[in-house]
Specification:
The protein is of the alpha+beta class. Helices cover 29% and strands 22% of the residues. The strands form 4 sheets. It has an 8-stranded antiparallel beta sheet with strand order 1-2-3-4-7-12-13-14. The protein has a 3-stranded antiparallel beta sheet with strand order 5-6-15, with no helix packed on it. β13 (303-309) and β14 form a beta hairpin.
Length: 328
């Protein structure tokens, strides 16, 4: 296993060093670790808003940057998710998260007028659908605006960055001929079998408020059956605060500017990529249980496990037909 620290947490990569033809991949574990660290470092210096010197942090401050492939690629992916979700997934709504205290700035309970001001000034609807500039040309927030009078954009890829990172590591391992892997960077991508020759198994945490220790309280276990896919869980049980008896969760609907208030506690999504699983898990947490079930049933490439509270406050679960799991 290869492990380390990235994006504010621990990552791990488990893999079979032998390819399908029986030959060993042409990399030592030391070289693999070095290459993976290099990929994660590139992601950090390009897309991490926690790194004040990263490309995105400088862009958000209004500075000129020379956007690299990652910066251009993830913006286009995010714009497509914004269109598909009809605004429920919006990487340009960072100031709204900040005002509620869930971003990089301390917040408080905002006034309606403050929320409306942000909705009228920030969001993907004010931005172009892709980043276009000549190679090595300087680029800044003004170049992304549809209208030069709009507020400069503040981008934040937290909803898909970890899934995107897992996919990048998986694609690197695929390029070496790796067939069995489990990449976990907060969000997971797996393929093939585990070291015991069995499908990968991943626990789904019970979405109980304050359950901050992954794996300590498992609700169900997902079995990969050898599939190559991403699996991601999103929920409102770790990042929230309570004010005057009301719970304010970190999932905010960027269309309304308010934290969601519904009975869906967590959404686990299996998708062809970890980036897609990451995005759709967040999307489900925005739209709630009923709309999530409709959405999952309309997308044949997705499987899901949704945990919710019924009208009596009891924890219940719903899973799609192809979601392979066992209960704890």
């Amino acid at each position: 296993m290869i492990s380390g620290y990235t994006q504010g947490g621990i990552f791990s990569v488990k893999l079979n060093l032998y390819k399908a033809d029986g030959h060993k991949i042409n990399k030592s574990t030391f070289q693999l670790k070095k290459d993976i660290d290099s990929i994660l470092s590139l992601i950090d210096t390009s897309l991490s808003t926690y790194n004040p010197n990263s490309m995105i942090s400088r862009f958000n401050r209004g500075e000129n940057i020379v956007p690299n492939r990652l910066f251009i690629d993830i913006y286009k992916i995010s714009y497509d998710y914004w269109k598909e979700s009809k605004g429920a997934l919006d990487v340009a709504s960072g100031p709204i998260y900040n005002i509620w205290g869930f971003g990089h700035k301390k917040g408080k309970l905002p006034q309606e007028s403050e929320i409306q001001h942000l909705l009228q000034n920030y969001g993907m609807q004010y931005l172009k659908d892709e980043i276009t500039c000549d190679a090595n040309a300087l680029f800044n927030g003004k170049d992304l605006l549809k209208n030069s009078k709009d507020s400069l954009p503040e981008l934040n890829y937290n909803a898909i960055a970890q899934g995107y990172s897992s996919d990048m590591i998986a694609n690197y391992l695929y390029s070496l001929g790796v067939k069995d892997m489990l990449v976990d960077i907060g969000e997971s991508y797996c393929a093939g079998l585990n070291p015991n020759g069995k499908p990968w198994a991943i626990g789904i945490d019970s979405p109980i408020d304050g359950n901050n220790n992954p794996g300590a309280d498992i609700k169900a276990i997902w079995h990969s059956e050898g599939k190559s896919c991403g699996i991601v869980t999103s929920g409102n049980y770790r990042k929230y605060y309570i004010f005057n008896g009301v719970k304010y969760a970190h999932t905010i609907d960027p269309r309304t500017g308010y934290p969601v208030q519904h009975n869906l506690l967590s959404a686990t999504i299996v998708a062809p990529s970890a980036c897609a699983a990451d995005a759709y898990a967040t999307y489900c947490m925005v739209i709630g249980l009923e709309e999530s079930i409709k959405f999952i049933n309309s997308k044949k490439e997705l499987e899901a496990y949704l945990i919710y509270k019924d009208i009596d406050g009891n924890m219940k679960s719903w899973k799609s037909e192809g979601f392979t799991s066992s209960q704890e």
